[in-house]
Amino acid sequence: MTQKKNNASRIADNKKAAYNYFFEEKFEAGMVLQGWEVKALREGKVQLTDGYVVIREGELYLIGCQINALKTASTHVSPEAQRTKKLLMHKEQIRRLIGKVEQKGYTLVPLNLYWKDSKVKCEIALAKGKAEHDKRDTIKEREGKREVERAMKERHK
């Protein structure tokens, strides 16, 4: 399971995921990256919103995560922004995920990228898609919280 991360170590968040899915379980996975990708992550040149995780031949892969190369990328490397990235987890965890993903309606979604002991980690969630009415409920709930915060702020002035 995941551990607490401080905000300074965060690289990118997938804010769309909470809107589109209900999260059942969260997992931490390592990432196999190339050197230019790590440099680009340090600069925050990553977009995670269209990303998803697939299982192929008993291994996890992150697809749709876009890491844009820096202008100073090496000349002998041809950076590919939407390269499929391998995720690293224990075999037992992957086997459990395979069983759950095969159930109807479940998918694996990347939630965020962060640094942990100078390594890039990806938090993924076993998720179930939300119906349209659930998304509307999420919006109403969020707006209700904003109204309460505004009222409290006005009251304390």
From TrEMBL:
Any one Pfam family match given in the protein's UniProt record, by short name: SmpB
UniProt subcellular location: Cytoplasm
Q: Residue ranges of region Disordered?
A: 131-157
The keyword Magnesium is assigned to this record: no
Which GO molecular-function terms appear in the entry?
RNA binding
* UniProt KW Transcription regulation keyword: no
- Looking at the UniProt entry, the stretches that span the membrane are none
Q: What residue range is the signal peptide?
A: none
BP GO annotations: trans-translation; trans-translation-dependent protein tagging
Entry GO terms, CC = cytosol
> Origin, by domain of life?
Bacteria
Q: Which InterPro entries match?
A: SmpB, SsrA-bd_prot, SsrA-bd_prot_CS
Q: Which SUPFAM superfamilies match?
A: Small protein B (SmpB)
Predominant location of this chain?
Answer: cytoplasm
Q: What does the UniProt keyword field contain? A: Cytoplasm, RNA-binding
| Biological function | Required for rescue of stalled ribosomes mediated by trans-translation. Binds to transfer-messenger RNA (tmRNA), required for stable association of tmRNA with ribosomes. tmRNA and SmpB together mimic tRNA shape, replacing the anticodon stem-loop with SmpB. tmRNA is encoded by the ssrA gene; the 2 termini fold to resemble tRNA(Ala) and it encodes a 'tag peptide', a short internal open reading frame. During trans-translation Ala-aminoacylated tmRNA acts like a tRNA, entering the A-site of stalled ribosomes, displacing the stalled mRNA.
Query: What family does the database annotate?
Result: Belongs to the SmpB family.
The identity of this protein, by name, is: SsrA-binding protein
Organism from which the protein derives: Caenimonas sedimenti
